[in-house]
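JOB MANIFEST
job_type = single_chain_structure
chain_count = 1
residues = 131
[input]
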Amino acid sequence: RGRLDGSLVVDPGTVVKLTGARIELGQGTQLLAEGTESKPIIFTSVLDDRFGAGGTFDTNNDRTATSQGATPARGNWSGIYASPGANISLDNSVVAFGGGVSLLEGGQSRGFAALELQQATARVTNSRFEN
């Protein structure tokens, strides 16, 4: 098997918050997001105040908890897209509020699934897709 072009390894306990964007894996790349039971890896909306660090999870600075302020919703960010030949491993991960629209090259846009595989391989265990 040939050498992979690039890899992204996400450490356990990492929280990734997005809005109107996607994580896109090119051909031959890989995403390894392998958390633990006590330190899952979170991919969610910037409006999701449930997760974060530093004493405040209010990443959108609306000074309210998610239940009181701007509420995250399905489609706040596009999701994880894997091109042909890419590889994804999700373990003890949460993917929340994905499945939205983002821009493509040339100024066009389209909707994506929270996890979209186009002739790519994936291993998803002990993980949850929500909202």
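[summary]
The CA atoms of residues 67 and 78 lie 22 Å apart.
The two ends are 37 Å apart (CA to CA).
exit_status = 0
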